[in-house]
């Protein structure tokens, strides 16, 4: 097997994109410093045919998708330059630069590649286009992405109670997502996305690898589907807690959830506005809520308890590595368990997860990390320290887990947990939260 040497590439070329019979293809090439025959080419494929039929998507959104998928291939070598081979506007190149800087923060941190966050982005200038008013109907029924976890369930049920009839949306087929869609009783559409197998092969030969802003990719795909099918806004379920990063590195905030944060939401909305679209085509319904508040609401939807899953294992790209249920050890499992334990009680959370995660001593370091007593916030989609700490203190105040050794250890550290909660209150004093939820949808968050 020939070694893949990231240092031998000087640029990623975003060669172009097309769509035929509902299948979108974006082409990328890593350019070498020497012989063109050593260049490595990739094609990203997104099959939209099942969602679009014979409708033609807006070319502006297709171009944006080609840009948004590029970090997956750029990171293989993280070269100093990205060349866009088709004409783009300054704001599109700015979008890509910001997507790299924020969306690949964790990748750069883990691989010690700070320069990977600041490639030069070049390309031909697009001719300014005159666009009329956006004909999009904000009152049309929304498109709601479903991830199989508690957050999208809370959005679905809130919208249903408000009298809305959303269409649910998913990328690729995963059992927890399909089960939640079935329980909702709502119509749904699915898109299939395939990363080029050549990238997997390159990773095996020494290419750089790591986390990419997947939510950004799915968001743009959702915008394409909603626009082409005459639906209303794409309504995400990203909460306030996703705005908080994991570590500060070289003066940068590194956030595993950057593409779920208000930073990306603002970037995408600004980009839509500069295309001539109404930015309210895209927003997160749950942005005003914390993970704790979402957990309170999810606890009122027992019909989903046995079917939702937030663990990453059932969503592995490689079907051979895909698990059927919660792994019981990863940060997402531990965070959701800690959050739901005082809200649902021991019998219920054990039934959901298959066993008691507090009774497994090996989970101690993981629980320490999520409550703020460990190294740093885990690189996963978990909430803030105070949320897990307050839930754990509620467990300490109850009787369900009394005498469980791990819980008794945390009981002896209650003062530390209280400091975490107090520190949060101090940090939040005077802070201003931003959200873009339109009034019609904000009303859906008001509980009866």
Describe this structure in words.
The chain is of the alpha/beta class. It folds into two domains: 216 residues, no CATH class; 118 residues, no CATH class. 39% of the residues lie in helices and 16% in strands. The strands form three sheets. The protein has an eight-stranded mixed beta sheet with strand order 5-4-1-2-3-8-7-6, sandwiched between helices. It has a two-stranded parallel ribbon with strand order 9-12. Helix 4 runs antiparallel to helix 10. The longest helix is centred in the middle third of the chain and has 16 residues. The model has no long low-confidence stretch (mean pLDDT 92).
For the record, the count of structural domains works out to 2
Overall body shape: globular
Mean pLDDT: 92
Total number of strands: 12
Uncertain regions spanning at least 5 consecutive residues? none
Q: Pairing-aware structural class of the strands and helices? A: alpha/beta
Strand content: 15-25%
Pathway: Cell wall biogenesis; peptidoglycan biosynthesis
Enzyme class: isomerase
Keywords: Cell cycle, Cell division, Cell shape, Cell wall biogenesis/degradation, Isomerase, Peptidoglycan synthesis
Pfam family, one: MurL_epimerase_C
């Amino acid at each position: 097997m020939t070694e893949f040497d990231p240092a031998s590439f000087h640029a990623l070329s975003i060669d172009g994109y097309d769509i035929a019979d509902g299948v979108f293809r974006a082409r990328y090439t890593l350019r070498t410093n020497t012989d063109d025959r050593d260049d490595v080419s990739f094609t990203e494929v997104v099959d939209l045919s099942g969602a679009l039929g014979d409708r033609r998507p807006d070319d502006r959104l297709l171009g944006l998708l080609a840009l948004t998928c590029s970090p997956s291939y750029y990171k293989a070598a993280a070269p100093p330059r990205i060349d866009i081979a088709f004409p783009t506007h300054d704001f599109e190149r700015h979008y890509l630069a910001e997507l790299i800087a924020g969306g690949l923060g964790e990748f750069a941190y883990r691989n010690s590649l700070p320069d990977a966050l600041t490639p030069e982005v070049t390309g031909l200038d697009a001719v300014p286009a005159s666009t009329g008013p956006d004909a999009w109907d904000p009152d049309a029924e929304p498109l709601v992405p479903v991830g199989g976890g508690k957050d999208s369930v809370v959005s679905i049920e809130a919208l249903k109670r408000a009298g809305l009839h959303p269409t649910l949306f998913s990328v690729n087929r995963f059992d927890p997502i399909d089960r939640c869609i079935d329980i909702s009783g709502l119509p749904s559409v699915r898109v299939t996305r395939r990363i080029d197998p050549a990238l997997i092969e390159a990773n095996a030969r020494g290419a750089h690898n790591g986390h990419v802003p997947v939510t950004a990719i799915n968001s743009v795909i959702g915008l394409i589907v909603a626009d082409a099918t005459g639906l209303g806004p794409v309504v995400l379920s990203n909460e306030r807690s996703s705005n908080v990063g994991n570590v500060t590195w070289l003066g940068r905030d590194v956030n595993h959830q950057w593409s779920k944060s208000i930073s990306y939401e603002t970037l995408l909305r600004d980009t839509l506005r500069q295309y001539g679209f109404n930015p309210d085509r895209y927003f997160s319904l749950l942005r005003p809520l914390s993970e704790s508040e979402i957990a309170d609401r999810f606890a009122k939807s027992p019909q989903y308890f046995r079917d939702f899953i937030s663990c990453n294992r059932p969503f592995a790209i490689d079907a051979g590595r895909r698990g059927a249920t919660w792994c019981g050890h990863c940060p997402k499992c531990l965070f959701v368990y800690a959050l739901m334990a005082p809200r649902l009680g021991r019998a219920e959370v054990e039934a959901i997860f298959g066993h008691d995660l507090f009774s497994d001593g090996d989970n101690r370091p993981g629980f320490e990390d999520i409550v703020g007593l460990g190294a740093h916030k885990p690189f996963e989609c978990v909430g803030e320290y105070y949320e897990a700490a307050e839930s754990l203190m509620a467990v300490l105040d109850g009787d369900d887990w009394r005498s469980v050794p791990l819980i008794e250890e945390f009981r002896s550290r209650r003062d530390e947990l209280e400091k975490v909660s107090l520190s949060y209150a101090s940090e939040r004093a005077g802070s201003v939260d931003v959200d873009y939820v339109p009034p019609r949808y904000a009303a859906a968050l008001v509980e009866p």
